[in-house]
UniProtKB/TrEMBL annotation:
<dbReference type="InterPro" id="IPR000866">
    <property type="entry name" value="AhpC/TSA"/>
</dbReference>
<protein>
    <recommendedName>
        <fullName>Thioredoxin domain-containing protein</fullName>
    </recommendedName>
</protein>
<dbReference type="Pfam" id="PF00578">
    <property type="entry name" value="AhpC-TSA"/>
</dbReference>
<dbReference type="GO" id="GO:0016209">
    <property type="term" value="F:antioxidant activity"/>
</dbReference>
<dbReference type="GO" id="GO:0016491">
    <property type="term" value="F:oxidoreductase activity"/>
</dbReference>
<dbReference type="InterPro" id="IPR050553">
    <property type="entry name" value="Thioredoxin_ResA/DsbE_sf"/>
</dbReference>
<feature type="domain" description="Thioredoxin">
    <location>
        <begin position="5"/>
        <end position="141"/>
    </location>
</feature>
<dbReference type="InterPro" id="IPR036249">
    <property type="entry name" value="Thioredoxin-like_sf"/>
</dbReference>
<dbReference type="InterPro" id="IPR013766">
    <property type="entry name" value="Thioredoxin_domain"/>
</dbReference>
Length: 544
């Protein structure tokens, strides 16, 4: 809504410079009045009005009227307007748009006529013939001059709407809000010397992940916060290992650094909530020497609205949403929680997913219930599931034509998770490609059927899983089900023959469909120490 100063109001004082650097101040007590003409180059209504202001200038300046053009453009574009209309009145540059913002108009041209003290006598924005004639008459009366005439008055339209003021351009509005302190950001401000590269500065402060990060300026953070309805000071979670509070603002700052768009912010917030639960055990995921890292799986309508990749090159490069959402969580854990490599993050080898790992399930090509529906959410609800996973491993089967055979192939591959002799494992994420999914679909093979088949083909007698001279790695006695042990704590003869599947429970095999429609390759991501001593996948709804 326009807040252009109206009759009898005091017009804000200002001092601007012309293209050659000369200073022009308002109000001017030496003038009989002032006429302010706000304009920009790319505006047809401004082009209509500018020659009419020139008529007023030529007619009334000899009687003491001060005419000031106030351009919302730079010097080059302003010169183009001056030359196009052969303007001879003084034109100033509102480079930072501070004056335009203070005058509060929505559209240009905006005209403000004042008396010698700066009190408004007439004002309007856009163009109407009636307002032009009334302003001309009022201006002439204030100068003691005759009313100016316009040679083309009959050719002028009765009305023409103005063009949007540059003040309302989103980037400009954010800059103005920051410059005038109209923000509620609570983060500490850090000033970077103009002589210092901001990317190098961020790296020197230890705020990056080894790749350059986007400097989180106030303008960028304010833009990011537009992606959520939550208050910036709301605490999303306490981030391990330091259990530092992560407010919505801090999440937004790290999302900016990661390169997120504002519409990704709700996903990052939900992922943060999920990763910081006791069930997920983020501190343990960080401190382990294993490969585990937060893996984010997105389900529901938001996948499409933010352009999240669910298809070919699923775990690869080239998709901003996938690349930056996972990175934002990793940066948040590092910068807010203190989870830095070599400090709390003690992974022996690490893996590329520690930079980022975020994928979407390709629900549209699957006959199965999506992952989030299995975990208790409606199909049209958007969710994130955060899973402590290692890097994807290949499942190659281009020959199986039956669901049973393909399930066996998958089971044999999954048996290698961590080590073939370690059974009774916790969670694993199985990513079934669309071609493999169609093989199961043709036979009506359900996820439950696939889980049962994997458990069947991975089952081994306990005696084959215990350490021996041939391979000293194997199941520790503490991991053997107690019912298979005798009173001496050793396996009974029957216990040695007991068949143990790879996974502790069928439901620990998390299944999703994803990837390109061509190629009979699936993948699995092994989990880490599931259970009370480890990490469990956590699903959270994504809200605005």
């Amino acid at each position: 809504m326009s807040e252009l100063p109206s009759n009898a109001a005091a017009a804000p004082a200002f001092s601007l410079t012309t293209r050659d650097g000369s200073s022009v101040s308002f109000p001017n007590n030496d003038a009989t009045g002032s006429l302010l003409f706000f304009f920009k180059r790319d505006c047809a209504t401004c082009d209509l009005t500018a020659p009419l202001i020139e008529v007023l200038h030529r007619a009334l300046t000899p009687f003491g009227l001060q005419v000031i053009g106030i351009s919302q453009d730079g010097a080059q574009d302003t010169t183009a307007v001056i030359n196009r209309h052969d303007l001879s009145f003084t034109v100033t540059l509102d480079r930072d748009l501070d004056v335009s913002a203070e005058y509060g108009f929505d559209a240009v041209p905006a005209l403000v006529l004042t008396d010698t003290t700066g009190k408004v006598r007439y004002s309007f924005e856009g163009f109407t013939k009636q307002d032009l004639l009334a302003l001309a008459e009022t201006a002439a009366g204030g100068c003691g001059a005759s009313k100016p005439t316009f040679s083309n008055i009959d050719e002028l339209p009765e009305h023409r709407p103005g063009c949007g003021s540059k003040v309302h351009d989103p980037d400009v509005a954010r800059r103005l809000a920051v410059r005038h302190g109209a923000t509620s950001l609570g983060a500490r401000r850090v000033r970077v010397s103009p002589a210092e590269d901001p990317f190098e500065f961020m790296a020197a402060q230890g705020l990056d992940d080894g790749l350059p990060v986007v400097p989180p300026t106030e303008e960028r953070v304010l833009a990011m916060l537009k992606g959520t309805t939550r208050t910036p000071s709301d605490v999303v979670a306490h981030v391990p290992p330091n259990l530092a509070p992560a407010t919505v603002e801090k999440v937004a700052i790290n999302a900016v650094m990661a390169g997120c768009r504002p519409e990704y912010l709700p996903v990052v917030i939900a992922a943060t909530e999920a990763a910081c639960t006791e069930e997920f055990n983020l501190h343990g995921v960080l401190a382990t020497t294993y490969f585990a890292t937060p893996v984010i799986v997105v389900n529901g309508p938001i996948r499409r609205s933010i352009g999240l990749n669910c298809g070919r090159n699923l775990f690869g490069q080239g998709f901003r949403a996938n690349a930056t959402i996972g990175r934002a969580l990793q940066l948040l854990v590092r910068n807010v929680g203190g989870g830095k490599p070599g400090d709390v993050d003690m992974s022996t080898l690490g893996q590329p997913g520690k930079f980022t790992c975020c994928v979407g399930e390709r629900e549209e090509v699957s006959a199965w219930e999506p992952l989030h529906v299995e975990r208790g959410f409606a199909v049209d609800t958007s969710t994130v599931t955060v899973f402590a996973g290692e890097a994807p491993r290949a499942i190659r089967d281009q020959l199986s034509r039956t669901a049973r055979s393909l399930g066996a192939s998958m089971g044999l591959c999954l048996d290698t998770m961590a080590h073939p002799k370690i059974h009774g494992m916790g969670e694993v994420l199985l990513v079934v490609s669309p071609e493999h999914a169609r093989t199961f679909e043709r036979e009506g093979y359900s996820k439950a059927d696939l889980r049962a088949r994997i458990q069947e083909v991975t089952a081994r007698p306990l005696r084959e899983l215990l350490p021996n001279d041939e391979c000293q790695k194997g199941m520790a006695l503490g991991a053997v089900p107690p019912e298979l042990l005798g009173t001496d704590g050793q396996p009974t003869p029957a216990g040695l023959d007991a068949m143990l599947p790879k996974f502790r429970r069928d439901e620990d095999i998390l299944i999703m469909v994803g990837g390109g429609t061509a190629g009979k390759f699936s993948a699995f991501l092994g989990g880490w120490a599931s259970g009370t001593a480890g990490s469990m996948a956590v699903t959270r709804e994504i809200t605005d």
